[in-house]
Amino acid sequence: MVSGGMACVKYLLFVFNLIFAITGVVLISFGGVILATYHDYSNFVDNWLFAAPVLMIIVGVIVFLVSFFGCCGAVKENHCMIITFSVLLLLIFALELGAGISGYIMRGKVGTMLESRMNGTMHQYNEDEKVKNSWNIMQHDLDCCGINGPADWSKAGFRDNTLPISCCQNVPMKNTTDKNSRGTCDMNSISVRDKGCVNKLRSFIEDKAVVLGGVGVGIALVQLIGVIFACCLARSIRREYETVETTAH
């Protein structure tokens, strides 16, 4: 049995692991929400952008499972389980650090990626229903039109200053299968959205990346504290075993 100050460390480690299990659920929730948010814009982003929220979900599941080792090790004062817990925490920390560095490096490529994908999909607006829905959702939700502005749609086959219906505010979009019931939108409309989408979507993605990074860094710091507690408790348990063995001899 550990004694003195180490007994306090034991209970602190147990409480820490309960909190740690909760952070695992938080990681899974955050990753799931951001992944679902990115899904609406999947036609405008490369697959690597989904890696961060997917990784967060995976780490969240691992964190939740690893907390089991910490709780059991602290309660049973099992040296092996506590050491296993510490090693797994360090591995998770390294994984998060690597993901954070990769995300920071790739951040500079977001603008180029978005512009390239938008140019490609814009010409498919009237040919692919999924692409059309993605553009409509983006232009409506981000209050924007075109890549850099409404004039971009003239390059995609829209003539006589006409624009997709989602480029205008307050235009009915019900019964979209009936073209005569949707109203019209053109460059001269007072309700046309005059801002381009590329910068708005870039800011949207970067804001989500900041949230992911902030949550990751916060939990990484908690992990380091847990590693310190675990190492202190493991060392105390080790000394207790050595003391018992010495007394027995």
Pairing-aware structural class of the strands and helices? mainly alpha
Overall domain count: 2
Averaging pLDDT over every residue, what do you get?
Answer: 76
Query: Kindly, what is the distance between the CA atoms of the first and last residues, rounded to a whole number of angstroms?
Result: 19 Å
How many runs of DSSP E, i.e. beta strands?
0
Kindly state the percentage of residues in helix.
55-70%
List the main descriptive attributes of the protein structure presented here:
2 domains; mainly alpha; 249 residues; rod-shaped; 6 helices
How would you describe the overall organization of this protein?
- With 249 residues, the protein is an all-alpha fold.
- It folds into 2 domains: 5-110 and 200-248; 127-196, no CATH class.
- It is built from 6 helices and no strands.
- The longest helix is centred in the C-terminal third of the chain and has 52 residues, at 197-248.
- Residues 174-181 have low confidence and may be disordered.
Quick structural gist:
By secondary structure, the chain is an all-alpha fold. The chain contains 6 helices and no strands. Helix 2 packs antiparallel against helix 3.
How is this fold's topology laid out?
Layout: H1 5-39, H2 51-76, H3 79-106, H4 110-122, H5 129-141, H6 197-248
